[in-house]
Amino acid sequence: MKTTPFLSRKLSLASAVTSVLMVQSPFLSAQKNTIEEVIVTAQKREQNMQDVGIVVTTFTSYQLRDFKLYEPKDIASQTPGLDIKNAVGNTNPVITIRGVGLNDYNSNNNPSTAAHVNEVYMASSAYLSFQLFDIERIEVLKGPQGTLYGRNSTAGTVNFITARPTEELDASMEVGYGNYNTLDVRGHISNKITENLSGRFAFMTRNSGGHIENDGTIGNSAGDARIILFGDSVLPGPVPAIGKDDKSAETDVYAWRASFDWIASDDIDIFFSIHGSEDTSNQWVYSLRTEDAAGFSAPDDDPFTVYSDFEPTIDSSGLGGSLRIDWDLPVGTLTSVTGYEELDRVMGEEDASPYRLTQSEFFGDLYEITQEIRLTSTTEDDSLF
Questions:
Q1: CA 181, 185, 191: angle at the middle one, nearest 5?
Q2: Contacts of 188 by beta carbon, 8 Å cutoff, 6+ apart
Q3: pLDDT at 314 > cutoff 90
Q4: Is residue 271 part of a domain?
């Protein structure tokens, strides 16, 4: 583990850190490896890291880029005690911390490991099927966090904090190209709009040709009894053969986010963020390893060759946002966090057979509205409460 020497100014994180993953920055290499003071907000207030006792692993925006962490499941590869696996194709990540979690692929069930985006609680694992872009930091808090984070935080919580608008012009564009014609484009622009208003816009798009070869279907003539649906029911009429496709498991996703920071007065700060996404990728396909109900068995054991009667797809559209208002009072800061999320999704699932044995489609129409109000004291005088 390499240790980052900090600048002399205070560093504010959003969680208490007793074990922190860090990398060395070239422009700081000449400075001494000392940490003067680290300010964290694990208890939803600014405190010295030494005064709180929560174990957390954090990732900065630079680490996310250097480690090529593109989805929430990717952070598990760099976090001890954390396991994240996609339960339905490349969606619905199930989070487990220190062996505690809910192994359920249904989108209408709440995970036992809480996840928050800009302090907004994500009530379904389906909401976590997003791309990591323009993220300021990610924090994995380990152990029960029910006192401050409430619902379903028995195992811990994972916090995603997006980048905030800046008062100075800040812009970037990254383009990456890889195997299977994978094209990854992401960028952002941030600047002051008026004297008291700053804005930021970020986007990403990711496309790939797929790494699975689908050798297609055999098809059938009218009344072929091998085309089975639920026992003896025969699918009427012929099912056309699907030709060979060497681009199965394609990725086609894009997302955007707009954020605004408004200093309404000397005592009131308002942060507003809205985001959207679209995913029309292929769903995962299955590689047949035994003989199916129609008597077909794969001629080889190549895991990257499948025989599917149709290309299962994902048609997912998401929209959401958050509004945070901070009001400085004589005894503390009154904070209101309002969140909204919606997700419309249709996903197909095939049966790993070139014959039409079963065909499933999962429909999801989710939305949530959350509201949190808290008062964070800034004084040590207990008599005020």
A1: 175
A2: 134, 163, 170, 171, 172, 200, 201, 202, 203
A3: no
A4: yes
Structural domain contains residue 4: no
151 within 8 A of 144, measured Cβ to Cβ? no
Whether residue 190 sits in one domain with residue 320 = yes
Residue with the larger pLDDT of the pair 42 and 164: 164
Are 108 and 124 in contact, with CB atoms under 8 Å apart?
Answer: yes
Pairing of strands 91-97, 82-88: antiparallel
Q: Which of 141, 162, 183 is the last residue of a domain?
A: 162
pTM, to two decimals: 0.80
Judgement on whether residues 143 and 189 belong to the same structural domain of the protein: no
Asked if residue 123 is part of any domain, the answer here is yes
Comparing CA positions, the residue from 74, 44, 30, 105 lying closest to residue 284 is: 105
Contacts of 166 (CB under 8 A, 6+ apart): 190, 191, 192, 198, 200
Torsion of CA 130, 135, 141, 144, to 10 degrees: -50
Give a yes or no: residue 231 inside a domain. Answer: yes
Q: Per-residue pLDDT averaged across 24-37, rounded? A: 44
**How does DSSP assign 227-288, residue by residue?**
SEETTTEEPPS--PPPPPEEEES-EEEEEEEEEEEEE-SSSEEEEEEEEEEEE-PBPP-PPP
Type of residue at 270? I
Burial string for 131-144 (b: 16+ CB within 10 Å, else e) reads bbbbbebbbbbbbe
Per-residue model confidence (pLDDT) at position 278: 94
DSSP string, 97-115: ETTEE-----TTS--SSEE
Q: Exposed e or buried b for every residue in 205-228, given b needs 16+ CB within 10 A?
A: bbbbebebbbbbbbbbeeebebbb
147: which 2 tokens?
């006192």
pLDDT in tens, 227-280: 444 444 444 444 555 556 667 788 899 999 999 999 999 999 999 999 999 999
Sheet strand arrangement including 114-117: 55-60, 135-142, 156-162, 114-117, 120-121
When divided into structural domains, the chain yields a total of: 2
- Which is more confidently placed, 285 or 28? 285
pLDDT of residue 231: 44
Residue 115 has pLDDT above 50, yes or no: yes
